[in-house]
Amino acid sequence: MALYQVEQATGGHEVPVQQIDRLMRQMIYGDHRELDERGRLRPDAAELSPAVQAQVMQLLPQLTPATFTTALPGYQQLRREFRQLNGFAVPGIANTLADSDLHGLTY
Questions:
Q1: For residues 19 and 38, what is the distance between their CA atoms, to the nearest angstrom?
Q2: Which of 7, 15, 20, 73 is such that its CA lies 20 to 30 A from the CA of 45?
């Protein structure tokens, strides 16, 4: 959530599919490869930059069980993106199945 807050403040957030698209278009099939010291592709280079990590480290101590609330900046977005990455809460897709549909999915 701290990373999401920093990314939202700086305008640098990518949803997972955007990061995958950039990895494929720019790094694998393009000519803008971001590599780490071991030669690995790093589509997460922006998130791992020292400037971003410094801001994240300033926010982390504020996120405690006592201060946590679902109204914190970034929480709803993190939750929505995690659910969508796993096939839930996708706009235009019903997330309900009839009981008869569920029966067909069992062994």
A1: 21
A2: 73
Residue 81 pLDDT: 86
Q: What is the pLDDT of residue 93?
A: 79
The whole-angstrom separation of Cα 92 and Cα 77 is: 18
| Cα gap 17→26, rounded to integer Å | 14
> Concatenated DSSP letters for 47-91?
HHSHHHHHHHHHHGGG--TTT--TTSTTHHHHHHHHHHHTT-S-T
Mean pLDDT by 10 residues, the chain (107 residues): 88 86 94 93 91 94 90 84 83 70 64
With 0-12 CB in 10 A as exposed, 13-18 as middle and 19+ as buried, what is 100? exposed
Distance CA 55, CA 2 (A): 8
Per the DSSP assignment, residues forming a β-bridge with 35 are 41
